[in-house]
Design brief:
By secondary structure, this protein is an alpha/beta fold. It is 32% helix and 25% strand. The strands form three sheets. A nine-stranded mixed β-sheet has the order 5-4-1-8-9-12-13-14-15, with helices on both faces. The chain has a four-stranded mixed β-sheet with strand order 3-2-6-7. α1 crosses α8, α8 runs antiparallel to α9 and α9 crosses α10. It starts with 9 loop residues before the first strand and ends with a helix.
Length: 310
Amino acid sequence: MVSIVGHSPKIALVGHMCKDEIISSNGSLKAAIGGTAYNLAALASVMSSGKILPVCRLGNDMELLAKPLFSLSPLIDTSGVLSSAYPNVIHRLTYFQNGERAEWNSGKQTPLPLDKNCLAADAILLNFISGSDVRLADLKIFKRKYKGLIYSDFHSLSLGYSKDQMRYHRRHPFWREYISAIDMLQMNVGELRTIFGNTMVSVSDIKNAITELHALGPKIINITMGSEGVIVSESASGILDHLKAVQIPQEVDPTGCGDTFAAVFLSNYLNLQDTLKSARTASFYAAAKATFSGLDGFKDIHAIVRNLSR
C-alpha cells in the first residue's frame, strides 16, 4: 500500500452535512450523521500532517452528532463551520436487492460560502451532497482567484427534486459550466449517464465520454463503477486506465464509499503527485468502507485495508 508522505497539505472540505437515514435491502434502519461527514472521517483517518478545514453549516440539532466527528483528528480546524438555528436536512437512502437505491430529502439547503479558509487551502474537496452546496456564480469567481486545486464529486448535481422531495437523475442544465470550473472531477456511472445518455454502457463508451469532459477543463477524471472498479484519466500524461475493483468478503453498507475514494485520492495526490498510485490506494479505502456502516468503522479502516491488500 502507498503511505501518505511529503508536505503537509491544507484541504478545505466544502459541502453539506445531513442526517442520514439508511434503510438496507433487508429493511433495517440506521440513523447517522452523513453528507461530507464521510469525507471528513476519511481525511482524518489518512492524513498524518497538514490541516483539514470543513466548510459546512450545522443546526443546533446536529451539534452533539458532529462533536465526536470533529474530534477524530487534531488536524481538523472547525473555524469554517457555520452555526444555524435551523435543523439540518434529513437524507433518506433506501437500498434494494439489485444494488440500486432511492433517495429522499426533507428539504433544500442554503449554499455555502467559498471563504478565506478555502483561499488559504492547497486544495478544495467540493462534494455536491445537496446539489446546491455552492452557487455556480460563486464557484466561477472563486476559480479565477484561487491558486490551488479544486477536486469535485459531481454527486447530487445529477439529481433533481420531485414534488414529494424524491431525488431523480436528470441532466443538470449547467453541467458544462460546473465541470469547467474544477480541476479534478469524480463521477459514478449513473451520474455520467445523466449527461451522455443511458445507452452508454461499455468501458469504451465511458472512455469516449471522458475525452469530452477533459475538453471542458478537468485535468484528472475518476469514474467510479462500484463492483466494476474505477476508470482513471489524466490528460497531461495520457493516462487512461481501468482499475479493477478491490474484492471484499461481504458488503455491509456502500454509503460513503465514493466520499472515501475522493478524500483518500486527493490527500494522496497532494503528497505523491501520482494519479494511478493515488487511485489504487483510494480504491482500497473505498472498498474497506463498504464493509461497515456509519462512521465508527473508520477507526479500524487501516487494519481492514491491510487485510484486503494481502
